[in-house]
Amino acid sequence: MRLLVVTPQLSVGGAERHIVDLASELQRNGHELLVSSHGGELVEPLVKCGIEHRCLPIHSRSMGAITSIFQLRRLVNEFQPDVVHAHSALATLMCRAAVAGRGVPVVVTGHGWPEQRLGMVAAALRTADAVIAISERMRTALISSGVAAHRVVVVRHGVSPKPFASTAAESFRRECGCAGETVLIGVVGRLIRSKGHTTMIEAAKSLPADLPWQMVFVGDGPLRSELQRQIASADLSNRIRLTGNQSDMGPVYGALDVAALPSYSEGMPLAVLEALASGVPVLATPVGGIPEIVEHNRTGWLVPVADSGLFADRLRQLIAKPGLRRAAGEAARTFAAAEFSSSAMVDKITRVYGSLIVASSLS
């Protein structure tokens, strides 16, 4: 199959890393891909996999939108895709306009939106031939917002454990100030308000000084300076470090003892799936698709949004009980391997493409 993938940008983020991973797997399976975006840090690893990338901004303003549609239309004429796969509501509308009259099906993956925007997003997604929801909760919400049930299929993100050398993981732990049996707690995600980093800072303030722990915020974003000020104000600069984006996440997950995600909203967070696949127990809020992938008291623990007190209680327990961490980590690894393999995800998405091509040829 010839697949045109359209996304607004490829900066570092869970949805964007999913796009690169999916494109790479599809190419390895023999499909021909062309990816279009406005660019970003993840273009380089995409191109290194041998996948062609075209820089094409997705504009929302009227004149810019018209330009984007014409550029996409030229791309469709040149590449002649069998399927166009969009990765945002706006990209869906642009792609639908670009393929008008050509009989090329459009599929969109929904990566998650704030609830107040769901109605507007659903209106855009209704123009697609198929909608991939990344959780059952998202499927239900989209159908409730008017997207036809027969067009919505659930395909959860799939991951593979990130390979790493034990020396690289140990090196990361040293960089984070971990020595001996010190427990390393990691929050992986963009430094934006919805990720709830402030909840972790508040929880950390409640941890006894004699407990052996360090915390890292892995990622970057607009709140970096503000979070640094909060950490310094709480006198936790020697305990919480901001590492920025990490190009190789294998050693990060290999170094972590606990993965925390105190988000206020989510779709299907790749950081949680990668932690589970790496055998790292997860402490997270029950938002978006998280309750579908974290089994409370088995592969991790679910804590109410913004409840820094309960986060602190759970952290104290996990720091003090290495056996509990190991048991949850092994259960997480087994669960992820059985339920969230990347090969199963690619197979399901490939079947969606195939069904759309068949339907298009019969119409």
Layout of strands and helices, then pairs:
Layout: E1 2-6, H1 14-28, E2 32-37, H2 43-48, E3 52-55, H3 62-79, E4 83-86, H4 89-98, E5 106-110, H5 118-125, E6 130-133, H6 136-144, E7 152-154, H7 166-175, E8 183-188, H8 197-205, E9 213-218, H9 224-233, E10 240-244, H10 250-255, E11 258-261, H11 270-277, E12 282-284, H12 290-293, E13 300-302, H13 308-320, H14 322-339, H15 342-362
Parallel strand pairs: 1-2, 1-4, 2-3, 4-5, 5-6, 6-7, 8-9, 8-11, 9-10, 11-12, 12-13
Helix pairs in contact: 3-4, 4-5, 8-13, 11-14
Structure report:
This protein is α/β, with parallel strands linked by helices and 363 residues long. The protein has two domains: 2-158 and 341-362, Glycogen Phosphorylase B (Rossmann fold); 166-339, Glycogen Phosphorylase B (Rossmann fold, 3-Layer(aba) Sandwich). 45% of the residues lie in helices and 16% in strands. It has helices at 14-28, 43-48, 62-79, 89-98, 118-125, 136-144, 166-175, 197-205, 224-233, 250-255, 270-277, 290-293, 308-320, 322-339, 342-362; strands at residues 2-6, 32-37, 52-55, 83-86, 106-110, 130-133, 152-154, 183-188, 213-218, 240-244, 258-261, 282-284, 300-302. It has a seven-stranded parallel beta sheet, sandwiched between helices. α1 (14-28) links the parallel β1 and β2 (32-37). It is elongated. The mean pLDDT is 93.
